[in-house]
Amino acid sequence: MRFAAGQFLGDRQTRRRFSGIELADMRPTVPRQDVHTHTHDEAHLLVLHRGAYLSSARAMPEVCVEPVVLLNPPGTHHRDCFHSLDDARFLTVSLDSALWTQATAGAAVPSHATRLPALALPEAYRLWRQLIDFDDTSVLAIEAEVQALLARSAGISDAAAEASGSAWLVRARARLEDDVGNVPGVAELAREAGLHPVYFARAFRRAHGCSPGDYLRQRRVELAIAGLCGGTQPLAEVAGACGFADQSHMSHALQRAVGLSPLQLRRLSRLQVANLQERRRRRAQAVVFAQRESPA
């Protein structure tokens, strides 16, 4: 079974298409038992907002119940689906072949479906927000966010994934990720890996593009983003669970990484509609934009 551009198993609540990009705010409509293996002809991003999602994409758990961004390159062959249709919601961002070729030229993008790092979530939610509050400036904003999301995938190549799968690297990452509140020294990590500290530090940077300290710092930020986008915990509790000294420490780290405060990120991820007056204003702007774009 082959899916054409923009074809997905769901009901489109809102849809926009322009400049080789099609965005759709979706609700799934096909029960899991009725979903069959299928192939997507064109590339697309999928942003999971709510629901239990089953995916064969790289780095995905058996059942995903937290917000994530998935990159599906052209020709993705899978049976991804929702475990249940109850209260599920997702965004699709379809990219035509010309845009995909242009955007990924010379970039080491994955050839298999892949989960993007949590740092992609703020960009994905800004993109979704533009779709909800569409006006005549949204096209420019959406194009910029799509390019940013594709840039997130650069470096997650198959070769990089294979290199980072070395047993000692897996152990080192697990050490950093399982206890983000404690900061080990390079000598300790190297000893656990069975390597000389100098070789360990160089090889870790070669595999991940950063030092172990930067990796841990990024991991804390990613955990905070996931916690803020997918939960309702008090901000101080999120900070503590993610290894930050306090809420202020988390706030500074998020501002540096994604340009948003914890409260701004949480509000963005809730996708709340604007008040009635604002919605009417944006709807009128969208009508004017559509009239400009339509052929005479």
UniProtKB/TrEMBL annotation:
<protein>
    <submittedName>
        <fullName>Helix-turn-helix transcriptional regulator</fullName>
    </submittedName>
</protein>
<keyword id="KW-0805">Transcription regulation</keyword>
<dbReference type="Pfam" id="PF12833">
    <property type="entry name" value="HTH_18"/>
</dbReference>
<dbReference type="InterPro" id="IPR009057">
    <property type="entry name" value="Homeodomain-like_sf"/>
</dbReference>
<dbReference type="InterPro" id="IPR018060">
    <property type="entry name" value="HTH_AraC"/>
</dbReference>
<dbReference type="InterPro" id="IPR050204">
    <property type="entry name" value="AraC_XylS_family_regulators"/>
</dbReference>
<keyword id="KW-0804">Transcription</keyword>
<dbReference type="GO" id="GO:0003700">
    <property type="term" value="F:DNA-binding transcription factor activity"/>
</dbReference>
<keyword id="KW-0238">DNA-binding</keyword>
<dbReference type="GO" id="GO:0043565">
    <property type="term" value="F:sequence-specific DNA binding"/>
</dbReference>
<feature type="domain" description="HTH araC/xylS-type">
    <location>
        <begin position="170"/>
        <end position="268"/>
    </location>
</feature>
